[in-house]
Amino acid sequence: MPTQYRTELAGIRDRTDELQRLWARNLDGCDAAAAAWKLAHGYLGNPAGSGLAVLLFDDDGGTALGAQGLHERRLHLGARVLRAACMADFVVEPAHRSLGPALMLMKRATAQAGQGFDLVYGLPNRKATAVCARAGLAKVAHVHRYVKLLRTRERLATRLPAAAAGVASVFADHWLALADRGRGWRDARGWRCEPASWGDGFVDEVWARRDVQTLLSERSAAALAWRFDAGRRGAWRLSRIDDAAGAPAGWFVWRRDGDGGDAEVGDFFLAAAPRHATQAVTVFANMLRDEGIGAISMELLAGAALDAALAAAGMSRRDDAMPVFARVAAEGGFALPPADAWYLTRFDNDSD
User: Fold this and answer.
1) Of the options 3.40.50.150, 3.30.360.10, 3.40.630.30, 3.40.50.720, the CATH number for the domain spanning 5-136
2) Which of 35, 185, 260, 332 maximizes the CB count within 10 A of its CB?
């Protein structure tokens, strides 16, 4: 007789031992210490709320065999503040990894749209996209990866002999730097990018001047520090962008990647995007070039105007897009906005 499964909705605080056990056993790179940190900081320390979990059981009852986490978020659109949940930390014990249990977990999670949450969303990998669709989520947009090359030697060395790569990189790097200096003179004269501290008051000042016509996760100083500081692995840094008048215009959260040669962006935010995106990327690139960074990589769901501004700053959009799935309550009076109204970065993806 086939195994019968059931799901149970629980508060994170009510099932801490079971969740830590499942995470440590089934999440890549997660051990007992990492699971304890994830629980304490990622969930219980979340300023938006500690969130929920859907647990999977079989007909034997006692021990949880899988879980789907629901990270709480506060999304803003116009005057509305929406209680949202990002699906993350999906785990199932190896002996129970089949479509049926996975679909049960995800259906119960997505059903929370209208049952306490205004919106449930997720950024699944390619293997999970079909399950998301079958669970009742709608694909609303794609997060794209944008790359800006600053130095070329290491990349050219994979295609050319060492001597030729060295000579070619001198000319290529000079051209890239010259292009950014031209953008700086033409578009970003007087703009600056400099290191900042977590909890700096400028973050709340920029957030208060956000575009209210865009669907945004709350980016208060407390939310930004929770997401990227407080012991996060990888040493995230905060860099402040000031406009030509010296007023704070936005920020980049970034860190060196595993090899240390490139920079990965965790969050990019401007009070007046896309109008100021070209200026911000230009001064950020010049700062990173001085630090010896080879390239900038950034994940972003951007509207057409911001996409064009990033291209003007020398960023190219790559093909490795990540789908965004979401669901709202049918009776909630809130409809999913069009893709151009969304703004998502790595800040909004709680899977790491």
Assistant:
1) 3.40.630.30
2) 35
Q: How far apart are CA 41 and CA 260, in angstroms?
A: 26
Per-residue pLDDT of the chain (352 residues; tens, 9 = 90+): 567 889 999 999 999 999 999 999 999 989 999 999 999 998 999 999 999 999 999 877 778 999 999 999 999 998 899 999 999 999 999 888 888 888 899 999 999 988 889 999 998 877 778 888 888 899 999 999 999 999 766 665 566 666 665 656 666 776 777 788 888 788 889 999 999 998 889 999 999 999 888 999 999 999 999 999 865 555 899 999 999 999 999 999 999 986 768 999 999 999 998 999 999 999 999 999 988 899 999 999 988 999 999 999 999 998 888 899 999 987 767 888 899 899 999 999 876 6
Cite the DSSP H helix spans in 191-293: 202-208, 221-228, 277-290
The vertex-301 CA angle with 88 and 294, nearest 5°, equals 95
**Where does the chain hold its CATH 3.40.630.30 domain(s)?**
5-136, 145-325+334-348
Domain 145-325+334-348 classified CATH 3.40.50.2300? no
Q: Give dist(CA 141, CA 344) in Å, integer.
A: 10
Q: What is the DSSP string of 171-185?
A: HHHHHHHHHHHHHHH
- Helix, strand, or coil here: 138? strand
